[in-house]
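seq:
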Amino acid sequence: MEKLGLPKPTYAQVHAAVGGGLENAFSRIVPPEHRVDGLRIFSAYWEKIMLEDLKVMPGALELLQSLHARGAVLAVCSNKLGSSSRPVCDALGFTPLLRAVVGAKDTPWLKPDPRFMAHMLQLVGGQADSSLMVGDSPFDVQAGHNVGMKSWCVTTGTHNADQLRAAGADAVYPGLPELARDLD
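struct:
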């Protein structure tokens, strides 16, 4: 925003803008006449720093390893760019445990469009009625439900338990270790 000569958004404004992909987030906080330049500036910066200070969420690697060892087919579907999601999964050590990592620009769709989740299920050979969407936003809940999947959420993102329940989450947990206990 500084490079565009615009005031910095507040934390609350950024928090409210998150979800639905980068371009949608920008449309909520950057005036239309600055969006193209803003996306260019942000993207160049993001490419430089996206792997800095990257940390695995508590319980994430253990959960993926446990599920993988039990034969579960695992995938990441994100509204973040696929070209960012894949290096992040690599850096965190997730990639060997995943069948696929698909994000924005990899398909014409984003969550919660049912075509995105249908594509993911087809890609990994899954069926909605025997699959589980794990996420942290109303977009994730809706994406799973749009194709008939259960949607469990953790409150480690930008939405609290009340917001996730209001969105229709089938279960809400404070973190992945608690979610993992219910998967057992």
